[in-house]
UniProtKB/TrEMBL annotation:
Species annotation: Companilactobacillus versmoldensis DSM 14857 = KCTC 3814
Keywords, comma-separated and alphabetical: Aminotransferase, Pyridoxal phosphate, Transferase
This enzyme's EC code(s): 2.6.1.-
Name of the featured protein: Aminotransferase
Lineage: Bacteria, Bacillati, Bacillota, Bacilli, Lactobacillales
Cross-referenced PANTHER family: AMINOTRANSFERASE (PTHR46383:SF4), ASPARTATE AMINOTRANSFERASE (PTHR46383)
Matches recorded under InterPro entries: Aminotransferase_I/II_large, AspAT/PAT-like, NHTrfase_class1_PyrdxlP-BS, PyrdxlP-dep_Trfase, PyrdxlP-dep_Trfase_major, PyrdxlP-dep_Trfase_small
Family: Belongs to the class-I pyridoxal-phosphate-dependent aminotransferase family.
Cofactor list: pyridoxal 5'-phosphate
Key word Transferase present: yes
Length: 398
């Protein structure tokens, strides 16, 4: 195995070097080897991809669809995305000029930020939220302005946004909003989005709206930020969560042509194009599988109801999420444990894997994240072990 030569060891990107690996994945990897552990860590659906979607991927292989596709994605998929957004969310995008098919929502986020950021530019990030946003901003030389939403039911309010813009607005290029939220499951109502849009409208600020969980809403129908502020919104979505297609890696950007023209350059230089089978599968999912998420959503809601009730009964204050498949319980202050310490002890002593809250930004400290995108059997076993662990902590402080 080759060892990096000392003569080139100092060659590095100074923006990349200080960034650690993703804390969520690192923690999951650290505890994965513990024998018998029940993992409630990652947002990876335990459902299979619908059969008709898999068949479409297989057919594309059998039809020898093995060549480069248009860099923005195959026309049929872009049209399906456009039709889906128009039908479900009443937002209209031209499939030829305003849609890019990406390698998952992850690439869509990176490409969007790369398109707009220059070194030193700021991005407003309400936290706790998906940690990749802060890392992407840093790797591109930007500055993430974290906004603690823990005292506002994990939502950024118009007044808080006005305050942030007054203090940090100079150099701010965008705000990233993620809803239904990871790790909180919060959902913004149309009225809440309109109030935020009123603050942002006609300011030099873009909204990167990550709506990857939009098909997993348990109450009021999802409203896209693009509905209330179309000219300043970069809409990001995909098939990973709605159709359990995480490994297929199909996401997309929908935005005004002026932005898409530039983002398409970044996308094409970075990945060329997504794979053929995944694109044809995604097209099938959006053309003939819009009802596929319904049963999944019913199962997730049952899991949510169970886990929220149990956590609150155990003394872990938990806001009931309106979407996604995460809960974000608060660690009782009387335990006097950081989120990292609590989660490591829970993994080692009780064999339950959850995610430290600070992995989702500074505002997540004092909480821990649980994914219920796993079987009810695992959830019940995890809660049972958490109950015993909680009793052991209470005994030490009585």
């Amino acid at each position: 195995m080759p060892e990096l030569s000392k003569s080139v060891a100092s060659i590095e990107n100074k923006l990349v070097k200080p960034i650690e690996d993703d804390k969520i994945l690192m923690f999951n990897s650290d505890i994965a080897g513990i024998p018998g552990i029940v993992k409630l860590t990652l947002g990876e659906p335990d459902f299979n991809v619908p059969e008709h979607v898999k068949d479409a991927a297989v057919k594309s292989i059998e039809d020898n669809e093995s060549h480069y596709t248009p860099q923005k994605g195959i026309p049929g998929l872009r049209k399906a995305i456009s039709n889906y957004l128009a039908t479900d969310y009443d937002v209209k995008y031209d499939p030829d000029t305003e849609v890019i098919v990406t390698i998952g929502a992850t690439e869509a986020i990176y490409t969007s930020l790369y398109t707009i950021l220059n070194p030193g530019d700021k991005v407003i990030v309400p936290t706790p939220t998906f940690s990749i946003y802060m890392d992407d901003i840093a790797i591109l030389g930007g500055q993430a302005v974290e906004v603690d939403t823990s005292k506002d039911d994990f939502k950024i309010t118009p007044d808080r946004l006005k305050e942030v813009l007054a203090n940090e607005g100079k150099g701010a290029k965008a705000m990233i909003i993620n809803y239904p939220g990871n790790p909180t499951g919060v959902v913004y109502t149309k009225a809440e989005l309109e109030a935020l849009a009123d603050v942002i409208r006609d300011t030099p600020l873009l909204v990167i709206s990550d709506e990857i969980y939009s098909q997993l809403v348990y109450g009021e129908k999802h409203t896209s930020f693009a509905k209330v502020l179309p000219g300043q919104t970069i809409l990001i979505n995909g098939l990973s969560k709605s159709h359990a297609m995480i490994g297929y890696r199909i996401g997309y950007i929908a935005a005004p042509k002026g932005f898409v023209d530039e983002a398409a350059k970044v996308h094409s230089f970075t990945v060329t194009c997504p794979s053929n089978p995944a694109q044809y599968a995604a097209q099938e999912a959006l053309e003939n599988g819009l009802d596929d998420p319904i049963e999944m959503r019913k199962v997730y809601q049952k899991r949510r109801d169970y886990i929220v009730e149990q956590l609150n009964n155990l003394g872990y204050d938990t806001v009931e999420p309106d979407g996604a498949f995460y809960v974000f319980p608060k660690i009782p202050a009387k335990f006097n444990l950081s989120s990292e310490t609590f989660c490591r002890r829970l993994a080692k002593e009780a064999l339950v894997g959850v995610v430290p809250g600070d992995a989702f930004g500074d505002a997540g400290e004092g909480y821990f994240g649980i994914s219920y995108a796993t079987s009810m059997d695992d959830i019940k076993e995890g809660i049972s072990r958490l109950a015993k662990f909680t009793d052991s902590l209470l005994e030490t402080i009585d």
